[in-house]
Design goal:
Elements (H helix, E strand, L loop, with lengths): L11 H15 L5 H5 L3 H11 L4 H17 L11 H21 L7 H31 L2 H18 L12 H20 L8 H24 L4 H25 L4 H6 L3 H18 L5 H44 L2
């Protein structure tokens, strides 16, 4: 993402790509029947591998990053948010989303499957984008800290009053999901308000990364083996994510991230949005292959399909969003 003045704020795109890849891995588990023929040891390894990633935890990272990116350009800005903000946000997220809804059924992925797996978080973000100007006004009168505390209290009360029997973070209600997810999004806004910490050493940043990863796996295990489900644990996981990301950003001001990973982050939204369709491709392209062989090529094919989706749909939506926002901005300036 860009800082005010056009300087690139390094590190977030790389994190986005890693998190999107975690979601893909979570939706592409090892082929049980294929590994079953290799013996009980292989099945045990496959089950352990299944429990080594938490897609919902990766979505929490997306929420915190999203709140940070939305609020970062508006820190200390007393001017009201205009129509150019809404146009840019809605087009950038909405155009690829609409394309995915139209294209995915041709790959055997229904809109219902999309809603239960990826679209719920995007609908939440659209809600957050819409109410952000109101949240900004409230925060200027109170503080972002107070707003986060209120959102946490409301989300926790909602979870206690309306527990999700599935144990998942998401439910059948977008409104419910948006109430539960709002604290994590606001944590990103709070992070944007705060000064970045001192640059951590390479050893310390890897310890932070390990801590975040291990905590995400702990949340996964609690979801399946305790009464502490995702809708309760992951919001508190978001607090850890906020502190980690602030150090990640600080670290990458001094040491640039891997450029290939940062460039891959430019199409992480397409990877998140379209990966279910990509996962279905091997079954259509190589229907005579064994299930295990299809699983081996599934992730590479998914990456290629999602990158093509980015070129065809997401990248043009960025240009369209800039053009639309630029067309509205002069009118707003001339009317003031």
């Amino acid at each position: 993402m860009n800082q005010p003045g056009g300087q690139r704020l390094a590190g977030l795109d790389a994190v986005r790509f890693v998190c999107a890849l975690i979601v893909v891995i979570g939706h592409n588990p090892p082929s049980w029947r294929f590994l079953g023929s290799a013996g009980h040891g292989a099945v045990l390894v496959a089950k352990l591998a299944r429990d080594m990633t938490s897609g919902p935890a990766a979505v929490i990272v997306f929420f915190v990053i999203s709140g940070f990116c939305i609020h970062w350009p508006h820190r200390g800005n007393s001017q009201p948010i205009g129509a150019d903000y809404f146009l840019r946000r809605y087009i950038r997220i909405g155009a690829p989303l609409g394309a995915a809804l139209l294209v995915s059924p041709y790959f055997g992925i229904s809109s219902g499957e999309l809603l239960g797996s990826v679209l719920w978080s995007l609908y939440c973000e659209l809600i957050y984008y819409t109410i952000y100007p109101i949240l900004l006004r409230i925060a200027t009168r109170l503080s972002w800290e107070h707003l986060v505390v209120v959102a946490f209290a409301a989300a926790t009360a909602w979870v206690v009053a309306r527990p999700n029997p599935s144990g998942n973070y998401t439910s059948a209600s977008v409104f419910s999901d948006s109430v539960i997810g709002l604290p994590c999004w606001l944590l990103g806004c709070l992070m944007a308000e705060r000064k970045l910490p001192a640059v951590p050493s390479t050893r310390k940043i890897w310890l932070w990364r390990a801590l975040v990863y291990c905590t995400s796996i702990l949340a996964l295990e609690l979801r399946f083996h305790s009464f502490v489900h995702y809708d309760l644990s992951l919001n508190f996981f978001g607090i850890l994510v906020m502190y980690w990301l602030s150090r990640e950003l600080s670290y990458h001001q001094a040491k640039r991230p891997w450029q290939w990973l940062e460039r891959a982050g430019a199409w992480s939204y397409s990877l998140y949005l379209f990966h279910l369709a990509g996962i279905e491709l091997p079954a259509k392209l190589f229907r005579h292959w064994s299930e295990g062989a299809q699983w081996v090529v599934r992730t590479p094919i998914t990456l290629v399909a999602c990158y093509l989706f980015y070129l065809v749909f997401e990248r043009p939506s960025h240009r369209l969003a800039r053009l639309a926002a630029g067309a509205v901005r002069p009118r707003l300036a001339s009317s003031t």
